[in-house]
Amino acid sequence: MTALDVHRRIRLGRTDLRVTKLCFGTSALGDAPNSYGYHVDEDRAKATLHRIFEGPVNFLDTSRNYGMGRSEERIGQVIHERGGVPEGFVISTKLDADDTTGRFDAAQARRSLAASAKALGIDHFPLLHLHDPEHARSLDELLGDDGGLRELFRMRDEGSIGAIGLAGGDVAIMMPILRDWDFDVLITHNRFTLTNRNAEPMIDLAVAKGTAVLNAAPYCGGVLAKGLNAFPRYVYQDLSEPMRQAIERIETVCADNGVPTGAAALQFSLRDTRITSTICGVSRPERVQETLEWATWPIADEVWAALTALPFTTDDPEAARPRTLA
């Protein structure tokens, strides 16, 4: 792989937005210990966000429900402290169902957008996604005439938002929506990694439709960045023995060749030409620079041959995971 130019901004699909190949994710910055196994306090989160805004990456991803709203609130505080969003910086967020009821009709979509605008201090969003359709109380409600999905398209028609996207986990639910609706962007997470290819058919469908693909969570919730010894969890769950063995094989190949496992996990996504940008979560300031270094770490072709020859799964890695927002 040619070394990544982290300063270069490329067109996001058919939109007019230009973004870097790296995007920083902010779910952990909202303090979600039930998902990640650790706390992130406000000072640490804000220091991390300042480091992001000061760096070469111009793309930040968040959501209304990350950390029960804390992610957007902390981003909004930092934007205010810095006197506004830096010129050319793209912040995307997501419409979410009601946290308590799962309601996801047009009225809930409007409430979600209004709450995001208030928390972030932003009047116009260049990119807004419909988030986690699998967690709506009713797909019929979400996809109906007075549902949240149609309201997303109405928001774009009104000019209150720019590009629109579909972001979620369950590929079986997302595929028909992606097939039937014309989105600018798709986000998949934890399902196109060194260990899992569950989203591969969905990525191919998006590319065929001209929809830009953002691949999130290349570290499988953190274990491929921090290592098995430091972080024995996989996709926000306890680590199974088969998955432990799979990750051990990846770590062995990387260790034998002097490559950080995080660099291999990140570049697995970056090197795929179908992926416009890769969303990497960070939870402390020093992780920002480390991510930039991993993105440009030299990895020989024979290392890639060894890594891609390892077995991987195609099942849904979150099929048995209880949902939690914190």
Can you tell me about this structure?
- The mean pLDDT is 96.
- This protein has an eight-stranded parallel barrel with strand order 3-4-5-6-7-8-9-12, surrounded by six helices.
- Helix 3 (70-81) packs parallel to helix 4 (106-120), helix 4 (106-120) packs across helix 6 (148-158) and helix 11 (261-270) crosses helix 12 (285-295).
- It is 40% helix and 16% strand.
- With 326 residues, it is α/β, with parallel strands linked by helices.
- The chain has 13 helices and twelve strands.
- The two termini are 37 Å apart.
- Helix 7 links the parallel strand 7 and strand 8.
Search tags:
alpha/beta; 12 strands; about 325 residues; globular; eight-stranded parallel β-barrel
Care to give the gist of this entry?
With 326 residues, this protein is of the alpha/beta class.
Strand content: 15-25%
Low-confidence stretches: none
In whole angstroms, the N-to-C terminal distance is 37 Å
Give the strand order of the largest sheet, numbering strands 1, 2, ... along the chain. Answer: 3-4-5-6-7-8-9-12
Quaternary structure of the protein:
single chain
Helix content: 25-40%
> How many strands, what sense, and barrel or not for the largest sheet?
8 strands, parallel, barrel
Element layout with pairings:
Blueprint: E1 10-11, E2 18-19, E3 22-25, H1 33-36, H2 42-54, E4 59-61, H3 70-81, E5 90-95, H4 106-120, E6 125-131, H5 139-143, H6 148-158, E7 161-168, H7 171-180, E8 185-189, H8 200-209, E9 212-216, H9 223-226, E10 233-234, E11 237-238, H10 241-256, H11 261-270, E12 275-281, H12 285-295, H13 301-308
Helix pairs in contact: 2-3, 2-12, 3-4, 4-6, 7-8, 11-12
